[in-house]
Amino acid sequence: MPKLAFELFVTGRTRQSQRAIQNLRGYFAEAPDVEYEMTIIDVVEQPERAEERHILATPTLIRTSPLPPLRIIGDLSERDVVKQALGLLGASLSTATQTQVSEDHDHE
Amino acid sequence: MSENPLGLPKLLTGIPGFDSITNGGLPMNRTTLLSGTAGSAKTVFGSQFLASGIEQFDQAGVFVTFEEPPADIRRNMMSFGWDIAAWEAAGKWAFVDVSPQLSDETVIAGEYDLGALLARIENAVNRVGAQRVVMDSLGAVFTQIAQSKIVRNEMLRITTALKKLGVTALLTAERTEEFGGIARYGIEEFVTDNVVVLRNVLEDEKRRRTIEILKFRGTDHQKGEYPFTIHPREGIIVLPLSALELKQQSTDLRITSGNQVLDDMCGGGFFRDSVILVSGATGTGKTLTVTQFISGGALNGERCLLFAFEESREQLFRNARGWGLDFHKLEESGHLRVICTYPEVAGLEDHLVSMKAEIGAFKPNRVAVDSLSALERVGSIKGFREFVIGLTSFIKHHEMAGLFTATTPTLLGGASVTEAHISTITDSILLLRYVEMYGVMRRGMTVLKMRGSMHDKEIREVSIDSTGMHIGSAFRNVSGILAGVPVHASEREIARLNDLFDS
To answer: Which positions in chain A touch B158 (Cβ < 8 Å)?
Structure first.
């Protein structure tokens, strides 16, 4: 499995920002065999980074690797949506889920 | 900034005519909602607001685009001569690109706000030191962010932040109908206290663009709709017609009509800054009256500008030669400029803009339009009236004399639409009419109205030959000429009527 890399754009130390960070860490804690890298970017301190990535809403999580880029907007509290999008659902379900996910993507 | 004793300070936009209908520009440090249907020129207006700020006031601007990518805007606005890329390089213009990024797949999972957008706008405003911000358009935010409650709250947060930054902002929004709710999604109630509406209405099969200031809270503005046009090189030009004040100076100075007898009939010639309407059926001598008017001016060393909408240059020059006047020579000596245009090539607003430009460039003493009726077919009646008011006040404001012709639809008697709608605007009216007498068509002329002067009330016979127009004596034994039903009275009847009044 290729290594996962993320950029998480947040606005300061708001509750939403904190929740997004905690949620993401929590999901990966449940899948200890998956390696990932996360860069947290505060748009107030680094607005030019938000400009580069055309960020509209915060929090926004961008999966930068593997490609193609995937964006998840929100505080990541919708557990199933996030885990499915990132392919973190249980191993027994993984094959079926992966297919499901890619089909969904084609529709969008 | 313009001083405004009646309320909040305003920021001059530099958009021609707009500052006049807003009584000095947009409310300063506020956000104004600019609402309009698709194709109502919202993006052009927004771009021009920033471009004029840079060109005329050296004020930088930020363009937040939710819809069109910056590359498209740069390219589209280039035709108006706005070199956005150069301004970006000079740190005068900054884009905040929030146009949809189709390449990235997006999933929504949980609560969010538009904090990133606000941070980017603040960053851009600080970076270029912007005084003006445009956000185009709100509807596109809603298509990207489905939850309208979030968008509403966040737009309110952004407009509040913009106020703190001290910028004057325009926020565009779509409407689905020309007349109805101000904008979709019910944003108008909370986002802004100021609303401007752009319309692009189909009226009598013709497109007519108008702009209306719906409200400016806490400050004054002109009310109602004003026509505007999009000039291919200069952008939006608002025509503040009914906002014009009647403050032209009037003078007692007389100028010649080019015909001695007509001068006498008018009590010594036309007034220098007056507008004269010449009405008549085809062939009654309207173009000849125009030609005389021009030759009278040119002989006194005045400059004359003729707008011809019915005849070609060659026809006009040949006709003038037929009456012993050399238009070529007059043009060469700089006393005359003839502009022939087909009425259909442009809308009335565009005609008005280009005619004003020609008048401004040539600086004539006399302006003639032959004929005004030809322009009637280009616009609606309301649009035509506004056009005539706009042209008339412009001419008077510049202390020039104007002579317009109007063609009546019927040969005998009758009044044209032109007359019906503009007769109150003009200072003087000359009527040229056919008079049928015992199987012969003769021509009559009368001065119907001459504001501020005594004038001849008789209907006089006119004859036209190779030397021009000759005004003879009055039709004594005919009545009903103007009504189009001439009735011939016998000599005895006339004598009897005279006795009646003498006794």
So the answer is: none
